[in-house]
Write a structure and sequence with these properties.
4-stranded antiparallel sheet; about 35% strand; 14 strands; Rossmann fold; globular; 2 domains; Alpha-Beta Plaits; alpha/beta
């Protein structure tokens, strides 16, 4: 992977919130795969082979009069990402129970301590959706339950479910970088029951789980919801995030159409994470 070239966009956003969250969500739909929030906005990365000159044409927030957004972009060789993350990745603690930190951070006195080397993958716990999914996992029983972490990113959610007693666990991501990074992080946290799989919903044929976690953008959730639910055991739990409060009616209707029952919602900065029961 050392020869992969990235295009890096440096966005300045005013006002910062919710501008940065909206911008990240829209850039994610457009194919950008990693983001580093800055004091003035966000830096976004996309592989050069996925980039084209009109990549920002469908980014609606750039046309909004509510936000002033300027940007510069340049070609970046994939070098020294660890140093970049060391500068930008601060540890977090969720609900005083779960710490997510990099190898170079000191250990926290928490019940669950997760070490993540995020590199270019999504899922350090900093983004609202990952933070809320961690909250859901902390609040629910995972002992002895089979789990699917769909769109696993760094593997942080799968790792936490194993720490809470889940097994076996499948962590799935279509992005090769996330697949390789999840394998590294699973090994780094001495997990024994997680299988990392490279692929999309098509790899789920004939699989069954007690719990499914999917922190993915709304469009993919809606597209693959039927597949996820077909893999969920009776009495199982489905946790969904990666979308906004305004998207809830659409997501809820699709789940209820498959006879799932809405159970609980967490919300942070207009992002939401929902729990459903089968």
């Amino acid at each position: 992977m050392s020869n992969i070239i990235y295009i890096g966009y440096e966005f300045k956003v005013d006002p910062l919130q919710p501008g940065v969250e909206i911008l990240i969500a829209e850039l994610g739909y457009a194919g950008f795969e990693s983001f580093v929030e800055t004091e003035k906005g966000v830096t976004a990365y996309i592989q050069k082979e996925e980039w084209h000159g009109n990549i920002l044409d469908d980014i609606q927030i750039l046309k909004s009069e509510e936000f002033k957004i300027t940007f510069e972009f340049d070609e970046i060789e994939q070098t020294n990402w660890n140093a970049e993350w060391e500068k930008n990745f601060n540890p977090i603690v969720v609900d005083s129970a779960c710490a997510v930190r990099a190898p170079f951070h000191d250990k926290f006195d928490t019940q669950y301590d997760i070490i993540i080397e995020p590199k270019m993958s999504f899922g350090t716990g900093h983004h609202e959706t990952t933070h809320m999914m961690i909250q859901h996992i902390l609040k629910n029983d995972f002992e002895g339950k089979s789990v699917l972490d769909m769109g696993c990113g760094t593997g942080v959610l799968a790792i936490l479910t194993e720490l809470k007693g889940a097994k076996p666990i499948d962590a799935v991501d279509y992005d090769n970088w996330c697949y390789l990074n999840s394998i590294e992080n699973v090994e780094r946290n001495n997990c024994k029951h997680i299988t990392v799989i490279e692929g999309d919903a098509s790899v789920l044929v004939e699989k069954k789980y007690d719990v499914i976690i999917a922190n993915i953008n709304r469009n993919i959730l809606m597209q693959d919801m039927g597949t996820y639910i077909s893999c969920l055991n009776k009495g199982g739990m489905l946790f969904l995030s990666g979308f906004y409060n305004d998207d809830i009616p659409m997501i809820k209707a699709e789940c209820e159409n498959h006879l799932l029952k809405f159970e609980e919602k967490f919300e942070r900065n207009n992002w939401v994470a929902l729990k459903f029961l089968n």
